[in-house]
Amino acid sequence: CEIGGIARSSYYKWLHHAETPNERFNEELAEKLERFHEKHPDMGYRRLNDKLRHDEDIQVNDKRILRICRKKTDPVQLKEPV
């Protein structure tokens, strides 16, 4: 707390805060993306997003999908330029 320059109570309040709806939605998206990625490991984040739109009728930004994929332990394979 001394290093960060914040009060100890603020740190513990942040540490034990309730999960926001966005955090919950991102976790659900991550689970769905994991399932898609297991079936189709060659899909990148854009194709995974297209599959979400088509199969699950979920509209999200490509950048959000990319951010979630980067946070996973097993990242989506990026294709090398030709």
Explain this structure.
This protein is mostly helical and 82 residues long. The protein has a domain at 19-71. It is 60% helix and 0% strand. The chain has helices spanning 8-15, 21-39, 45-56, 62-71. α3 (45-56) packs across α4. The longest helix is centred in the middle third of the chain and has 19 residues, at 21-39. It starts with 7 loop residues before the first helix and ends in an 11-residue tail after the last helix. The mean pLDDT is 86.
Helix fraction bin: 55-70%
Task: Kindly estimate the percentage of residues that lie in beta strands according to DSSP.
Answer: under 5%
End-to-end distance? 49 Å
Low-confidence stretches: none
Tell me about the largest β-sheet: none
Q: What gross morphology would you assign?
A: elongated
> Topology as H/E string?
HHHH
Could you state the oligomeric state of the chains shown? single chain
User: Which class best fits the helix and strand makeup?
Assistant: mainly alpha
Q: What value does the average pLDDT take?
A: 86
C-alpha-based Rg, rounded: 17 Å
- Total number of helices: 4
**Number of strand segments:** 0
InterPro entries: HTH-like_dom
Protein name: Transposase
Domain HTH-like: 26-71
Pfam families: HTH_21
